[in-house]
Structure formats: C-alpha cells, structure tokens
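Team,

Forwarding the record for the chain on the shared tracking sheet. I've put the sequence and predicted structure together so nobody has to dig through attachments.
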Amino acid sequence: MRRYGKHTDEDDIRTRPNRRGNRPRTHIRPKHEDAAEGMVLTVDRGRLTCLVNGRTIMAMKARELGRKAAVVGDRVALVGDLSGAKDTLARIVRIEERTSLLRRTADDDDPYERVVVANADQLAIVTALADPEPRPRLIDRCLVAAYDGGLEPLLVMTKSDLAPPDELLDLYGALDIPYVVTSREELESGDAADRVREHLDGKITAFVGHSGVGKTTLVNALVPKERRRTTGHVNAVTGRGRHTTTSALALPLTATEGWAIDTPGVRSFGLAHIDPSRVIHAFPDLEPGTEGCPRACSHDEPDCALDEWVAEGHADPARLYSLRRLLATRERKEGD
C-alpha cells in the first residue's frame, strides 16, 4: 500500500519529533585530538586504573569504543578529569595500536579468546622444579602463545633446592630460551630477584605460571613496595596451588626502567585461536626449509621438506623436534 503519492516533497514526509529536544544521534565520532596518553595498569569490574603523566587515575571505557576492551598494558587516550583526585573518573576514548598481544582460550574447544596482556616485550614463564611438579605441556603452550603474539620468552625455574633443573633444561635447550634458576632461599634473600632483573631492563615483562610456583612471590621481590598476596599452599592431592592473584597488574621496575605484569595463575592455557602456520616464524633457521613443503603442510608429515632441510645440515635436528613438539601441543592435554 502506497502511503504517499508519486510526486511527494519534503513537506509530505512525516517526521518523528525529538521529544528530548537534543541533537539527533550521529555515527560521526569525535577525534579527541587533545586527549592525554596513558597506560592501563589494571582492570577491575569495568574500572581501569591508568598511569597518565605520572599520576594514577581511575577511568572507564567510552561507549563509542563499542565492544573493544582495553587490557593491562594497553596505551590509551583519555579525556575528562585527569587530576587523579578521589572520586574522579576519566574516560578512555581511544586504544592505540598494539605492538604485541598475549592471548589464551579456556581450552582448545573454546572459540572465545581472552586477551591477557597487550604491548609486552617479554613473557616470563615461571615453573617450579618440584612442589608442584613442572608441567612441560603447559610451558609448551605458553611458548606457542608467546611466539604467536610477538613476545620473547624467558624461562624462570623456581625451587631448585627441591629438584635439579637438568631435565627441563635439556628439553628446552634447542630453543635457545634465556633462563634463570632460583631456589627458595634465593627468593627470600632477594638474590633471585637480582638475577631475574637483569633480563627485565627497559622491557615490559608479563609473568605467567600455574598456581603455587612462586610467580607472585617473585614479582613481590622485584617490586617490594607493591606486595601482592601470595599462595604459599599447594594441594597435596592435586599438586596445584590456589589462585591468589585474580587480576593482571602492571608494576614499575624503577631500578631497570621496565615493567613487571603479574597475571593470575593458570590451570589451563587453551590455544584454539592459534594458527599453527605462524609458529614456524619463531624458528628462523627452519623457516627457509618450508619453501619445498606441500601446501598446508603441518610440518609433521612424510612429505614435509624440513626433514631434508635438516638432513642437509642447515639446522640442528633437535630444533625440528622442538618445533614439532610445540605444533603438536594442541593435540595433547596439558597434564600429559
């Protein structure tokens, strides 16, 4: 049914009055060119603590950002009250382009990825050598996430007074990952923090590990003015600790001009979001050998050109073994 005639003009068209008397909505968003730059330190129930010009302020995300969420480590643009005074609230109007991204899923069947940290330079994977026992599959998964997200890995082994690190070092030796071995006594005395700090100079480092390995204890030693509650208890049946860190927190390392980001302890590290074809980029000695691989090669099949590449002496066989172990980590449970 035709509501208007063939020759209508503007006066014939009925318009809905704006009862509120305000301006009509528009899709044009403000540029906020005068917004101040800041860094997200922590996120808690929709409120974000940010560092702006040396001041710690509370902020919330602007509606115009839609579903895009800011995470710890994000560089953001803020407007509003930036005084940092009590009961003031600024507004995050822009999230700057990220240089790196550490992501995980709840498990390998979960399609929803969770962004853990943004713009970190390094991922410190903390594992105990005993109490609880080391979990190489979880370490492998963290390594894959680091390589995929553009972070350099650092392996930190704690509780060496309970077990030697030799077996774990042999397992990851071919990857040339920098590492630090610490004992409980060194952790309490501060010697462990001094040796770890040598790897953190001028870098933003995210610390990850499952509960009970001493991750938060180490971060407390690195940043003594900002102590967080530690675990200190490992279940005798499961060999796993109880979560005490419930949200990621960025802490300044004044002595090294870097940042330490403490993240909640993990019991699983899903890799559903990872494209296995990107993992090869972390192996520059093997990547040229993939030119002869068949299309969509998994790098662990009879026709893979990497076998011939290694046989010709271009790379260490241990490196190929490590690559294939990492690529297969999605097919194995972390507790295996």
